[in-house]
């Protein structure tokens, strides 16, 4: 459940996935693509050699017509299995998750294991995986060994989550991934947070304002 009081609503979004799949790259590109007045400074804590060891954090937000300050805190978690405790600590109390898979064909088994670990970690920190707003991004689709989009869509045809195909280093698919998650967040929390009823934030307005429009 997002943190909420009379003046502020804060959503926690976690980017989760295998090591060096592109979680931090997503946050870096978002920082460049979001309007400067909407996004805060990105914080990267203890990152070495391209791998996140603690977490990255990117805050951004907007103010609704009702005066409510809507904030988003985007985290990326370490992909290495050695940092299991840190990953779970960051995942705890998440309102939504972006699972960043590496589209490289040779890493399909690693993606599956990481996705299974996400479900297990959610259970351990008290998140109901079945109801969690979730988007699955397949990153590095521009590389030669990437699994073709049609093949991936066929394999994931029964999945209930949005799928986005990305090349995060160049910005492709980065905002589309976040927009898809924002829509899932709105559908999940509209009633509990009175987004539409009290703050005139229907789904489209919520997404447009969050992404810097309006």
Write the layout of secondary structure elements.
Elements lengths: L2 E2 L3 E9 L6 H11 L9 E6 L2 E13 L5 E8 L7 H8 L4 E7 L5 H17 L9 E6 L9 H7 L7 E3 L8 H20 L1 H5 L3 H8 L4
Parallel strand pairs: 2-5, 2-6, 6-7, 7-8
Antiparallel strand pairs: 1-2, 3-4, 4-5
Helix pairs in contact: 5-7
Overall pLDDT level: 91
* Helical fraction: 25-40%
How many alpha or pi helices? Answer: 7
Q: What oligomerization state is this entry in?
A: single chain
Cα Rg: 17 Å
Just name the CATH architecture. 3-Layer(aba) Sandwich
Sketch the major β-sheet.
8 strands, mixed
- The figure for the number of domains is 1
Can you identify the CATH class? Alpha Beta
Which structural class do the helices and strands define?
A: alpha/beta
What best-fitting shape do the alpha-carbon axes yield?
A: globular
The total beta strand count reads 8
Uncertain runs? 50-54
**SSE sequence, one letter per element:** EEHEEEHEHEHEHHH
